[in-house]
Amino acid sequence: MLRDACATGRLLTRAERDARRAEGERAAGTGTGLRGLIREHLVAAREVLAQLPTDRAEPLLAAVEQAVDAFADGYERAQQQAVRQEEAARREFIDDLLYGGSDLGRLVERAERFGLRLSQAHAVAVATGPEPYGDGYPVARGIEEAMLARFGNRRILLATKDGRLICVAPGDQPDVLAYFAKQAYGATDGGQVAIGRSHQGAGGVVHSYEEALNALDLAARLEIDSPVLYAADLLVYPVLTRDRQAMADLVESVLGPLQQARGGAQPLIETLHAYFDSGCVATEAARRLSLSVRAFTYRLERIHTLTQADPTDPQHRYTLQTAAIGARLLPWPGIPG
């Protein structure tokens, strides 16, 4: 092709360029590096150049430029298509893994391709931030680079799902998820990370993922602002809300009289939250509500009068605290939080 182009001084035809482009696509499929392939083009051009008169060099360079450009275009197109297919396969795998919507045997086979052994136990960490995150976002890339630099080729899966950052790690390596939580908290400018418990098998990944999501939901409803949440530490709350009607009855029965107070029940419920959240220390609870200790103590007395339950009495405290938690979870009396 080069000799003919040099003999006539013509440019490459469309058919010749298409042939080089198709050759580039085939070369990409073999996994051969582009640098070496371009070098082979230049070697072939040098061999032709050695056989040409000096005045024929210019047509040769033009033909080589066209040939290499078409070849590289085909190579890059094939690579981009392969990347898109890989990304689609990875996204489909992550969806199936986290939602359990695939044949178990096939899921286990696909997991090996992405570095997971689903016969082992795994735990899942989920991170949220002030904005949604997707694959390729600077935040996601930065965390991935930090994780790879720290743990190398450990069997870890990093992904994004519904705007959240996800890390799946072997259940016997809690240091991986702890490091992920640290990186995610810093990268998301103070976001929150929830870590599910370790569970066995493919279904265990789904279970751990759901635990982490539930922990984030509970933290939002209960106003828990800890940067890292462990599902194992929050198991009491699903137990409390398993019978929603019973919880609603408890809240209405115990806290219902607070609605008779001037200003409604909400200020007194906030008083209970501050009191229990501060470890039943009145001075600290008053500080959290920006009240004087005297004003706060008056509120506690008002709660005692209306409910006939004394927040400072250990015998009554558990009932009041359980009802206050229920008020947050329902929410009651209809005001979120």
From TrEMBL:
Gene3D superfamilies: PucR C-terminal helix-turn-helix domain (1.10.10.2840). InterPro entries: CdaR-like_regulators, CdaR_GGDEF, PucR_C-HTH_dom, PucR_C-HTH_sf. Transmembrane segments: none annotated. Residues 100-218 form the CdaR GGDEF-like domain. Residues 268-323 form the PucR C-terminal helix-turn-helix domain. Pfam families: GGDEF_2, HTH_30. Signal peptide: none annotated. Belongs to the CdaR family. PANTHER family: CARBOHYDRATE DIACID REGULATOR (PTHR33744), DNA-BINDING TRANSCRIPTIONAL ACTIVATOR ADER (PTHR33744:SF1). This is Helix-turn-helix domain-containing protein.
